[in-house]
Write a structure and sequence with these properties.
The chain is α/β, with parallel strands linked by helices and 415 residues long. It has a domain at 3-159 and 364-381: Rossmann fold (3-Layer(aba) Sandwich), CATH 3.40.50.720. Helices cover 34% and strands 22% of the residues. It has 13 helices and 15 strands. A nine-stranded mixed β-sheet has the order 14-13-12-11-7-10-9-8-15. Helix 1 (3-22) packs parallel to helix 5 (110-119), helix 5 (110-119) runs parallel beside helix 6 (134-146) and helix 10 (241-258) crosses helix 12 (381-400). 46% of the residues are buried.
Length: 415
């Protein structure tokens, strides 16, 4: 961690804490018919997906956007011709008519935008993963605890779905019994020679249209690199790879269903095996995480085979919860999706299997209504924090080639 970034975390955390005393100037009481006025920091590809989702949510409207790439300033007009566009996110945060901010910037910028938004007295929805590192996650959570009035949601939408609501109820009702092991996986594929996430570079992606220094966000200065600006997910200094892009979603679901704390340790192996295209982050991964209460969680992923899609199995003494999405049976060739409970007849001899049928909530509408009601969103900042810690410990283990504990990760961050 650079001195500049360490100093920023200290200063921003202090500023966010001070906001607890100054944010009242930004507050307004939302009436039953009032719309939540939204601003977004980082309306790139994912950011504009979020703009479409929030545009469909009742009682929400877009009024502001900020991005270091001027191309986005025109693109956001699709979601409201009166949207005010800024190059510097701090100019957006100065707008007193913005009620809540959506953060959809590259991962290495999340903590800065999170803490700046908190200091400005705004509610916020931060895309996963919450932060780029353990120390950033600790700083963000500490700032939130000093300013608990803000409504903060995290972009882990599985925790609003029916398969979350049913599974959590089955666990709370005691149908699963003692859980010591959870299996999870996520598989994808791309045409040979085309690596996952590699995107074309627009012709106007140049130093004149991009605030490169702002994008670097305290990383060592170097000449503008359009490839790294567009394909930042491939590089450690900007990204956490597939662990922070995909594993964090499933781990957040598991943590939410079982009400687990942050993990205490993780071990991860794998490598860049599918497409050797210059990327640093691995495309083939096996992770094992230790959680308090004698629970282990495994996650496996590959970018060179998609047959078994995405899935989770919670293995309990009294039953199993299984959630599948796009898994193809090798015998029948049929794709399976859905969630279910199967009893362990040894301990629940009279129990019956259950097929899940909960409808779930719209994740984005839930956040908007949480801003209006001042209730905690389905995917809270605490859940975002715990799943971020799981992701960061896993990546640290891979990079160090050893099992990493949360204590050792925090000690390293202080050096």
């Amino acid at each position: 961690m650079t001195i500049e970034r360490r100093d920023f975390l200290k200063q921003a955390t202090t500023a966010a804490a001070a906001a607890a005393f100054t944010a009242a100037s930004y507050d307004r009481v939302l009436g039953a018919n009032d719309r939540v006025r939204l601003g977004i920091i980082g309306p790139g590809d994912r950011g504009q997906q979020l703009m479409r989702e929030f545009q469909q949510a009742p009682n929400a409207e877009w009024i502001a956007a900020a991005d270091v790439y001027t191309r986005r300033h025109e693109e956001v007009k699709k979601y409201g011709t009166a949207i005010k566009a800024f190059k510097d996110h701090r100019s957006l945060l100065d707008q007193k008519d913005v009620d809540a901010v959506i953060i959809a910037t590259p991962l290495h910028c999340h903590a800065r935008h999170f803490l700046d938004t908190l200091a400005a007295g705004k509610d916020m929805f931060c895309e996963k993963t919450l932060t780029w590192s353990v120390d950033e996650a600790d700083a963000c959570l500490a700032a939130v605890k000093k300013n608990p009035k803000r409504v903060i949601g995290v972009g882990q939408q599985h925790n609003s779905a029916g398969y979350f609501q049913d599974a959590r109820k089955w666990v709370k009702d005691g149908l699963v019994g003692k859980v010591t092991s959870v299996e999870s996986w996520m598989s994808r594929n791309t045409p040979r020679g085309k690596g996952q996430w590699v995107r074309p570079i627009p012709a106007d992606c140049n130093p004149q249209n991009v605030d490169w220094k702002a994008f670097l966000n305290g990383r060592p200065n170097r000449p503008f690199d359009a490839h790294k600006f567009i394909n930042w997910r491939l590089y450690w200094e900007f990204s956490g790879g597939n662990v922070t892009e995909n594993m964090v979603h499933q781990i957040g679901w598991i943590i939410g269903v079982l009400d687990l704390p942050a993990p205490t340790a993780a071990y991860m192996s794998g490598g860049v095996f599918s497409e050797k295209d210059g990327r640093e982050v691995p495309d083939t991964i096996s992770v094992i995480m230790d959680f308090p209460g004698d629970v282990t969680v495994s996650w496996q992923s590959t970018f060179s085979n998609s047959r078994f899609g995405l899935g989770i199995r919670i293995l309990g003494s009294d039953g199993t919860i299984e959630w599948l999405a796009g898994t193809t049976d090798m015998v029948t060739g049929k794709s399976a999706s859905g969630w279910s409970y199967a009893p362990e007849k040894l301990n629940r001899p009279n129990a019956e299997a259950i097929k899940g049928d909960a409808k779930g909530d719209n994740h984005y509408a839930n956040f908007v209504e949480s801003v209006r009601s001042r209730k905690t969103p389905n995917s809270s900042v605490e859940l975002g924090y715990r799943s971020a810690i799981a992701a960061h410990l896993s990546n640290l283990s891979y990079r160090r080639k050893e099992k990493v504990t949360l204590d050792s990760a925090r000690q390293s961050a202080r050096k």
